[in-house]
């Protein structure tokens, strides 16, 4: 199993500093599945190549009682093709470079240099097309050579193994990160246990590029060994980070005469008239209208303890903190990055102790029961439910209405009927690429009314945004309130 990384950056031997491996000597490392050797076939000022060679002891792997891999034969492709073993070796042997650290040449860590990575043999059941779909969106020039099953028997046809060469001007840490994630995606025999830790690894190493990759669903599914629950969790958290990245880039973007407004959990396209363009500075954004509408309901409810579920980067949390009537506020989100941004937006590091005691930020999902959500008077769920798989809605309903069971719940979601007003939105398309559904007003009410009835709530509906006579407003809000009779019966 061989990987080589080359550069023509001048002086090329700086590659040794970036990899923390001296080009002048061979270095060997003991791994739990064999040996890893690092050497330099060439090392001059003009061109330098580092090689990572893995010597896998498949006999020990099969015989090991602790091994999680199942091999029916002693003869297999494990010693030869790039697989999850290579990914582990990258982290163990080139871990400092993978994490983007270099004390001797710190400026090189953030410098894009000409790099070429060559994997001698890598499996791809999806053929050349799948390899290109994985690497070309990341900016690599991809060269592929497919190997035959047996050169002496060409009639046997082609094998699923390829020599893959990637070329790009990029940071070394980027190249190593892409290889670390995508090599196991191409292999169907990941050799270690797949659990929640692997989701964390995927999100950590995929930060900044995976959420925007067109094949992110297949990447997550293959990386996590086709485990649907883990894949769903990873994708939900990736979506949250993608939305945050869009919001950070701009609150409002002008493009092709259309106003694209970043709005919490979605990006929506609002049509612009001449009058609207003239009043642009005075206009309150659609998402701001949602937040103000939810805030007004929460204040009217008399709630003292409030949940913001799917809190994102803390836009609603900031407004809640400004209201002294709310004694404690809890924000929950599936994205660590979202919560980090919320901390910055709220300036939590500089909060007075009494103010800091009023707010809690938690990492978690809306589809799993969490006892920390119980005991609150009201909850806001702003532009979140459309990001859940329809099959997961019932889990969300139980988490919020059965287990947390606040007296008041405010939920907003896009109105699908209004989509015809967006000239740049193709017919049948959702407002955001990760929306799992978008409901009409009737569909929203048909979902909310039975839910309210069986959960002991009354529900009312309101439009949010400028209302059109035919298709309604761009967003819709449902306010669930437990009746006084229900509350008294429980007491």
TrEMBL record:
<dbReference type="GO" id="GO:0031047">
    <property type="term" value="P:regulatory ncRNA-mediated gene silencing"/>
</dbReference>
<keyword id="KW-0943">RNA-mediated gene silencing</keyword>
<feature type="domain" description="Hen1 N-terminal">
    <location>
        <begin position="1"/>
        <end position="238"/>
    </location>
</feature>
<dbReference type="InterPro" id="IPR013217">
    <property type="entry name" value="Methyltransf_12"/>
</dbReference>
<comment type="similarity">
    <text>Belongs to the methyltransferase superfamily. HEN1 family.</text>
</comment>
<dbReference type="GO" id="GO:0046872">
    <property type="term" value="F:metal ion binding"/>
</dbReference>
<dbReference type="GO" id="GO:0003723">
    <property type="term" value="F:RNA binding"/>
</dbReference>
<keyword id="KW-0694">RNA-binding</keyword>
<keyword id="KW-0479">Metal-binding</keyword>
<dbReference type="Pfam" id="PF12623">
    <property type="entry name" value="Hen1_L"/>
</dbReference>
<dbReference type="InterPro" id="IPR029063">
    <property type="entry name" value="SAM-dependent_MTases_sf"/>
</dbReference>
<protein>
    <recommendedName>
        <fullName>Small RNA 2'-O-methyltransferase</fullName>
        <ecNumber>2.1.1.386</ecNumber>
    </recommendedName>
</protein>
<dbReference type="GO" id="GO:0001510">
    <property type="term" value="P:RNA methylation"/>
</dbReference>
<keyword id="KW-0460">Magnesium</keyword>
<dbReference type="InterPro" id="IPR038546">
    <property type="entry name" value="Hen1_N_sf"/>
</dbReference>
<dbReference type="InterPro" id="IPR024026">
    <property type="entry name" value="3'-RNA_MeTfrase_Hen1_bac"/>
</dbReference>
<dbReference type="InterPro" id="IPR024740">
    <property type="entry name" value="Hen1_N"/>
</dbReference>
<dbReference type="GO" id="GO:0090486">
    <property type="term" value="F:small RNA 2'-O-methyltransferase activity"/>
</dbReference>
<feature type="domain" description="Methyltransferase type 12">
    <location>
        <begin position="307"/>
        <end position="399"/>
    </location>
</feature>
<keyword id="KW-0489">Methyltransferase</keyword>
<dbReference type="InterPro" id="IPR026610">
    <property type="entry name" value="Hen1"/>
</dbReference>
<dbReference type="Pfam" id="PF08242">
    <property type="entry name" value="Methyltransf_12"/>
</dbReference>
<keyword id="KW-0949">S-adenosyl-L-methionine</keyword>
<keyword id="KW-0808">Transferase</keyword>
């Amino acid at each position: 199993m061989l990987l080589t990384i080359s550069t023509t950056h001048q002086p090329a031997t700086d590659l040794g500093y970036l990899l923390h491996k001296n080009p002048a000597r061979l270095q060997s490392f003991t791994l739990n599945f064999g040996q890893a050797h690092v050497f330099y076939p060439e090392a001059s000022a003009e061109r330098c190549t580092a090689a990572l060679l893995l010597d896998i002891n498949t006999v020990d792997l099969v015989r090991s009682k602790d091994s999680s891999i199942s091999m029916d034969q002693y003869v297999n492709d494990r010693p030869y093709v790039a697989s999850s073993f290579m990914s582990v070796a990258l982290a163990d042997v080139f871990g400092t470079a993978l994490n983007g650290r270099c004390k001797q040449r710190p400026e090189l860590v953030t410098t894009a240099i000409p790099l070429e990575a060559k994997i001698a043999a890598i499996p791809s059941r999806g053929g050349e097309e799948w390899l290109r779909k994985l690497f070309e969106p990341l900016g690599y020039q991809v060269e592929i050579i497919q190997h035959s099953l047996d050169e002496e028997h060409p009639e046997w046809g082609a094998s699923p193994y390829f020599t893959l060469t990637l070329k790009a001007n990029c940071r070394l840490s980027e190249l190593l990160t892409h290889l670390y994630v995508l090599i196991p995606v191409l292999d169907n025999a990941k050799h270690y246990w797949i659990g929640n830790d692997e989701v964390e690894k995927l999100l950590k190493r995929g930060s900044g590029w995976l959420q925007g990759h067109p094949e992110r669903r297949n990447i997550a599914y293959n990386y996590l060994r086709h485990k649907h629950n883990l894949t769903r969790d990873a994708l939900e958290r990736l979506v949250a980070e993608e939305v945050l990245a869009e919001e950070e880039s701009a609150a409002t973007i002008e493009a092709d005469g259309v106003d694209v407004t970043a709005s919490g959990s979605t990006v929506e396209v609002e049509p612009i008239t001449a009058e609207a363009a003239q009043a642009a500075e005075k206009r309150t954004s659609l998402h701001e209208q949602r937040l103000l509408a939810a805030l007004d309901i929460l204040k009217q409810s008399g709630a003292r303890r409030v949940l913001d579920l799917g809190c994102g980067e803390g836009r609603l949390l900031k407004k809640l903190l400004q209201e002294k009537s709310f004694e404690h506020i809890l924000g929950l989100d599936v994205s660590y990055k979202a919560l980090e941004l919320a901390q910055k937006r709220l300036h939590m590091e500089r909060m007075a102790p009494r103010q800091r005691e009023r707010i809690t930020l938690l990492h978690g999902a809306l589809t799993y029961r969490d006892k920390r959500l119980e005991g609150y008077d009201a909850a806001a769920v702003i532009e979140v439910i459309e990001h859940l798989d329809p099959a997961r809605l019932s889990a969300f309903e139980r988490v919020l209405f059965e287990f947390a069971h606040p007296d008041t719940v405010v939920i907003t979601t896009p109105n699908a009927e209004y989509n015809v007003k967006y000239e740049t939105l193709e017919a049948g398309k959702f407002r955001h690429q990760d929306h799992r559904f978008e409901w009409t007003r009737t569909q929203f009410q048909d979902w909310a009314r039975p839910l309210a009835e069986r959960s002991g709530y009354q529900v009312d509906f309101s439009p949010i945004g400028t209302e059109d006579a035919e298709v309604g407003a761009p967003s819709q809000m449902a306010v669930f309130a437990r009746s006084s009779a229900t509350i008294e019966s429980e007491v």
